[in-house]
Design a protein that fits this description.
This protein is of the alpha+beta class. It has helices at about 10-15, 45-50, 105-110, 115, 130-150, 160-175, 180-195, 205-210, 225-235, 240-255; strands spanning about 15-20, 30, 35-40, 55, 60-65, 95-100, 125, 155, 220.
Length: about 270
Amino acid sequence: QSVVSGRISPMASKRGFLAAAGRIYESQRVVSAQGAFMFFCSQRKAQWYLDNGLATRDSDTDVRLLFAPKGPGRADDAFYAQPLQNVCVVCGSVEGLLRHHVVPREYRDCYPVHLKSHASHDILALCSVCAVAYSAAMTAHKKAIMAELGVVPRVNHAPPEVKKAQRAAAALLAAADKMPAARQQSLREDIAEYLFGSRTAAVPPDSVRAVSEIDVRACLANDPGQLVVDALLQAGPDALDGFTRRWRLHFVEHARPRHLPAGWDPLRPLAAK
């Protein structure tokens, strides 16, 4: 299942969330030359097949491959054989969605190349409120992992965009009814830029309070993802699998998702070894 690209909010990326332009998933159905389901992909990927003469469009939902693929596709995989829904997997909201990397990108991006592919199983949709709510537990988990592995983080000043958004949220909560409309809009734009990487994005009302409650101290650590992954690789061939499962189980325990896609499995092994 492919995800839609979107602008990255710098702090959202560091916390494991990526801003998205309205949709997380696209469900372009791809079938074989014989019409058998193969997989779902993004519109961009489907257009690449079409532009390169590798497929034809059968309908608004189906793209038919003109070549014989190497394997049977995803027809037998419950997770990848469904069109994933653009809803928050925690609360079911369809507003203010972010792409949440269950294994934070600072780690996953450092995985060996052959383990990075087919990672969309661990990219889930979260609304901004649920993303902020989970961020404290996620930060604490990172610190615990670093302590276990003996990785010492560097310490910097809290990023200014965090403080700016938090001040904006606090001001709106304290005195929005006494502010000119233009001032309210400017403060909401500060929050939108922090959450979504775009000052024009809509900010759900609950997100204002959530941002006001961010623990700025949690933003002080620069998480050395490469050092963590290097330590895991030295621990043995199964360490990254265990690390990946650990993050999935942590997400389930602390975020308590009620709308996970069918077939999403915290114990699923990495795609390749």
